[in-house]
């Protein structure tokens, strides 16, 4: 598993790779808090994620809630793999707005 954060210009992008599980929850929580605190446009790229467990889903939900409290949204960039999308849907999570390429909130 790998979670990376990239803050370039006015965008803060969190990228997921591999399995995102309880084993990396502390790292994920730290990076999502950093992203929400950045005051930049927020985007999550899940294209290379293989699986999210309940801890990752809960942390994404918490990050979205904190962003909403600040009047911001977290957009999703790229295509969400079917297995990850299924996990999010089955857990009742519909978190992210689609990235708007015109505003530059895409992260690759």
Structure explained in plain terms:
By secondary structure, this protein is an alpha/beta fold. It has one domain (2-103): STAS domain (Transcription Regulator spoIIAA). The chain has three helices and five strands, in the order ββαβαβαβ. It has helices at 25-37, 54-69, 82-90; strands at 2-8, 11-20, 41-52, 74-77, 97-98. Strands 1-2-3-4-5 form a five-stranded mixed sheet. Helix 1 packs parallel to helix 2. The longest helix has 16 residues, at 54-69. The protein is globular, with a radius of gyration of 12 Å. It starts with a strand and ends in a 10-residue tail after the last strand. The model has no long low-confidence stretch (mean pLDDT 86).
In total, the number of strands is: 5
Question: So, the CATH homologous superfamily?
Answer: STAS domain
Number of helices: 3
From the spread of the alpha carbons, the general shape counts as globular
Look at the structure and give the mean pLDDT.
86
Flag low-confidence runs.
none
Strand numbers in spatial order across the main sheet:
1-2-3-4-5
Per CATH, the architecture is 2-Layer Sandwich
Structure classification: alpha/beta
